[in-house]
Design goal:
This protein has helices spanning 16-25, 46-58, 94-111, 135-147, 164-173, 183-188, 194-200, 232-242, 258-272, and strands at residues 4-7, 30-33, 35-36, 39-40, 62-70, 115-118, 150-154, 178-182, 204-209, 211-214, 220-223, 247-250. A hairpin with a 2-residue loop joins strand 3 and strand 4 (39-40). By secondary structure, the protein is an alpha/beta fold. The longest helix is centred in the middle third of the chain and has 18 residues, at 94-111. It has one domain (4-272): TIM Barrel, CATH 3.20.20.150. Helix 3 runs parallel beside helix 4. Helices cover 37% and strands 19% of the residues.
């Protein structure tokens, strides 16, 4: 089974048609949807979501995944640090969360995808919530199964489950939960090695690829995939050997020249994944 390349149109701005046209130009046939028309996909109305789907269908593009912000939140009485939640609130009352889970499944249905990303609660000191035993997760997994959707957990450093051990623990506790593996995040927390990738590989169902160069002040300068410090020439072959046929989504975060970064990243991916990418 050949792996596929995935492009997120909002890397090029909030008009999804622009990013979709770049996907076509690069020979990429799958999309990841996160934001469009100035809003997170979960808060877009149905009409705007159907418009996104129509634009994709007209171009023969398929939505591979909904990059939702579910569980990238804390309670309103907790104070999160600097978090990029892409237009979605980071402080969400417990009583309001089920509504957002239900909404994400509706959005996935409109967009025509069976993959929805989740996180694992923001880390906010003593007020941090536990993801593995969250009753909402049990509800969400059952609701997703009924909707024909897979929930996939991303290893996000600002959230509670980012390192290999906790990831494997949560995935063992919840077999219906898959892994949305961000290789850049894995490298950031000190585990960007082939042996760790191989250990996680059986649960991986979707991959994020972004690259960066650390700055002296602790921040990152994002660059095109393959031109930063993340050891992709080691990680990608290891993952492809252990788990062939995965979707690889480019998430560049390069703001100055996003089109160039995506173009270079797509070319790099096609050369770095031994099995090749469609």
């Amino acid at each position: 089974m050949q792996a596929i390349t995935v492009l997120n149109p909002d890397e090029l701005g909030q008009d999804p048609a622009v990013g979709m046209d770049l996907a076509l130009a690069l020979g990429v046939s799958h999309l990841e949807i996160r934001t469009a028309h100035g809003a997170n996909a979960l808060v877009l109305d149905d009409a705007k979501l159907r418009e996104v789907r129509r634009l994709a269908d007209e171009r023969g593009l398929h939505v591979a995944a909904l990059a939702s912000p579910l569980w990238k939140w804390c309670r309103p009485d907790a104070i999160p640090g600097r978090v990029d939640s892409f237009g979605f609130p980071t402080q969400v009352p417990s009583t309001d969360r089920k509504r957002w889970v239900d909404r994400a499944l509706v959005v996935a249905g409109i967009l025509g995808t069976t993959r929805v990303r989740v996180f694992s609660h923001l880390s906010v000191g003593e007020q941090t919530e536990t993801f593995r035993d969250d009753p909402l997760l049990t509800y969400a997994l059952k609701a997703a199964e009924q909707a024909g959707v897979r929930l996939l957990l991303e290893n996000e450093p600002v959230c509670t489950v980012a390192e290999p051990g906790p990831l494997l623990d949560v995935l063992a506790e919840h077999p219906a939960l898959g892994l949305w593996l961000d290789l850049g995040n894995l490298f950031e927390v000190g585990h960007g090695t082939p042996d760790v990738v191989e250990a996680l590989a059986p649960r991986v169902e979707y991959v994020h690829v972004k690259d960066y160069v650390p700055r002296g002040d602790g921040t990152k300068r994002f660059v095109a995939a393959g031109s930063g410090d993340v050891p992709y020439t080691d990680l990608l072959p290891a993952l492809d050997r252990a788990r062939p046929g995965l979707p690889y989504a480019l998430e560049t975060h390069v703001r100055e020249t996003p089109g160039e970064a995506l173009t270079r990243g797509a070319a790099f991916l096609r050369g770095a994944v031994p099995g090749g990418l469609a």
